[in-house]
Amino acid sequence: MKILLIEDDREAAAYLIQALDEAGHVTHHAADGETGYAMASGMDYDVLIVDRMLPRRDGLSIVESLRAEGDKTPVLILSALGEVDDRVTGLRAGGDDYLTKPYAFTELLARVEVLARRSSPSEAATSYEVGGLTLDRLSRKVERDGEAILLQPREFRLLEYLMKNAGKVVTRTMLLENVWDYHFDPQTNVIDVHMSRLRSKIDKGHATPLLQTVRGAGYMIRD
Amino acid sequence: MRLTATFILIFSLFAILLLAFITWQSSVQIQRQQANDIDRELAALQRLDATGGIRALAFAVERISRNPGPGVYYLGDATGQYLLGNVMDIPANVILEPGTYSFDYERANPLTDPPTAIGRSGNGEVRDRKTGYAVVRSVVTSNGLRLVVGRDVVERRGFSAIIVQSFLFGVLGIILFSLIAGGVTARRVLKRIDTIRDTSTKIMSGNLSERVPITKRNDEFDGLATNLNAMLDRIEQLLQGLKEVTDNVAHDLKTPLTRLRNQAEAALRAGASDQTRQQALETTIAESDRLIQTFNALLMIARAEAGAPSGALTDVDVSAVVADVAELYGPVAEDEGIVIETAVTSGVHLRANRELIGQAMVNLLENAVKYAKPDAEGQGRIMVGLRQLDGRVLIEVADNGPGIPEEDRKRVLERFVRLEKSRSETGSGLGLSLVDAVTRLMGGNFRIEDNAPGVRAVIDLPAT
Q1: In what order do the strands lie in the sheet with A26-30?
Q2: DSSP code per residue over A184-199
């Protein structure tokens, strides 16, 4: 994946570039807003990671300009401003996701990988299938190897989100944001307990578990 | 004092202008009245002359000349020879040239001076002669005689003098009165202002407990003083809060920072095994995550207490939020042997901040799950409720745990306050403070009640 990182903090940028490289992504770096904007509009990237506060041109205005030009490259906004209103303005400017500093790299990586998928056409799919597990978004039916699985509405949405991003790590915060629509860190293991219930419903009695826990990061569904 | 002087000056000037206007108007009015009288009398006499001839005119002039009053009458021939009237000497030009004149004259008393005595003036000693100043009009009658009718204006002048005199007295009185009244008022006002200034000086020098004294008069100054005092109370309270917070922040952030540092040192220590290092680094990350959480909670409380911009409050289905969070915690509670019962009136909307209400509910449920204890049936119980009551919306989270002693129920809402019993549990001591701040942001009040046994946390919000 080709990523453009627009971040003025050299140390943070160097760390991110190295970590993204280790995860198998090619990352270009711009240290200020103007350079970043020029690079973003001149080249094709899979994802842009844009710091909100930048020298010479602020992050939100870069995103706004790109969107105005019809550029649909997914954007992850990084910011030290983490209040609800800040997030709302960030997303309204055209950002696809918003991550508050300080963040864990696993969180950033998971979000970047999920974002990149957005530009692929499977977004509008009406059903998902992972290793014999099928989920029909219209009839809201879930089956594994032809056997119907009964899920609570919330469990259905959890599974739907996981399957939409099959093969990608999704973090607990991402689940809370996308399934419950809240943007705080759950303090106890609330999400884990929901996941273990879902797991027991879809994986119990099957030789290959589909729902996997990724240590220190989150969850992933894959065959 | 300058303000008072200015007011007195403006007030006096205005009064003087008013009086001057009245004086001028009345003298103009009197003059006009007199001129009218003269014209009317002259016209009547001329009519008499035209209808009754010289005899009727002479008779009339003689009769009216005897009337006491300011009237001035003269009838003479073209050469200036006096015939009739109460004035004998008339300046020559008045006789020669008909018109309006004013002049000094000597008035003959028609009662003592025989008016018909042509060419003689009694016994030569004319008694009781009055000197005066007259305004007259002279005309030539049909048979060439000169008729002069006028008014003595000394009387008029006397009247004007009275007006001017009362005007001066009036002005003097007004200035004197406004000086006294202004002085007294200013002294009283200044005294009140001085007390306020003294108080504020004391406060500025550091004594924040000082208050502006309030009198029993209940006037505007007392209103101002009451407001100032209320403002000072609030400031003192805020400063007190700030001081406590900084003290607590210092303590509650330094402790984990010290642990963080210790872990890093442990990892660096010579001879530490790879496994120790790995563990130390993991603890470091976990510790810094906790610090970030504490920090975020503090910021959130500060934002909520500062009063979020009104844009942050939107129409929120609070029933859905409460039910959502209860559902979110359902599985966790169940794993702990706790059942969450919900009694949520659906479809209740409020002007609120969804994220903050959600976070408040999460904090309450975290606590409830932490403290709910198995009852006689071996079951821990949490009740989550939302109901409407008398124009209020009550959100309740109750557990059957050990509860909070009555004397601590207010204290636990303060930042970083953790009761001895809960020291062993994880937590920052900020959870209930945030709930309290969020509730107040939305115009409600948050309280801890006795659930007998356990805690009943009540978010009491005004319905919108």
Answers
A1: A26-30, A2-6, A47-51, A75-79, A97-100
A2: S--SSSHHHHHHHHHH
Q: Is B73 exposed, middle or buried (0-12, 13-18, 19+ CB in 10 A)?
A: buried
Q: Please, which residues bridge with residue B457 across strands?
A: B397, B448
Provide the domain limits for residue A12.
2-119
d(CA B345, CA B246): 41
Give contacts of A180 with chain B, Cβ < 8 Å. Answer: 324, 328
β-pairing, B146-152 vs B130-140, is: antiparallel
Asked whether the beta carbons of B12 and B171 are under 8 A apart, the reply is yes
- Which residue from B minimizes the CA distance to A186? B362
Q: Would the CB atoms of B355 and A188 count as touching at under 8 Å?
A: no
Domain CATH code at residue A12: 3.40.50.2300
Q: What whole-number distance in Å separates Cα of residue B222 and Cα of residue B231? A: 14
How does strand B99-107 pair with strand B130-140?
antiparallel
Taking each continuous run of H as one helix and of E as one strand, the counts in chain A are 8, 12
pTM comes to: 0.64
Q: Which of A126, A211, A136 is nearest to A175 (CA)?
A: A211
CATH fold of B2-160, please? Answer: Beta-Lactamase (3.30.450)
CATH tag for B220-305 (out of 1.25.40, 1.10.287, 3.40.50, 1.10.10): 1.10.287
| pLDDT tens-digit series, residues B297-338 | 888 888 777 776 555 678 899 999 999 999 999 999 998 899
3-state secondary structure at position B138: strand
All residues of chain B having their beta carbon less than 8 Å from the beta carbon of residue A85 are 308-309, 311-312
Query: Nearest-5° angle of CA A86, CA A89, CA A94?
Result: 130
Non-local (6+) Cβ contacts of B120 within 8 A are none
Q: From the options 1.10.3720.10, 3.40.50.1980, 3.30.470.10, 3.30.565.10, give the CATH code of B310-462.
A: 3.30.565.10
Residue A104 and residue A176 in one domain: no
Distance of CA B383 to the CA centre of its chain: 50
Distance in angstroms (rounded) separating the CA atoms of residues A154 and B364: 22
In tens, the pLDDT along B119-130 reads 444 444 444 456
d(CA B22, CA B26) in angstroms, rounded, equals 6
What average pLDDT does chain A have? Answer: 88
Helices and strands per DSSP (H, E), number in chain B: 8, 12
Cβ neighbours of A185 in B, within 8 Å:
293, 296
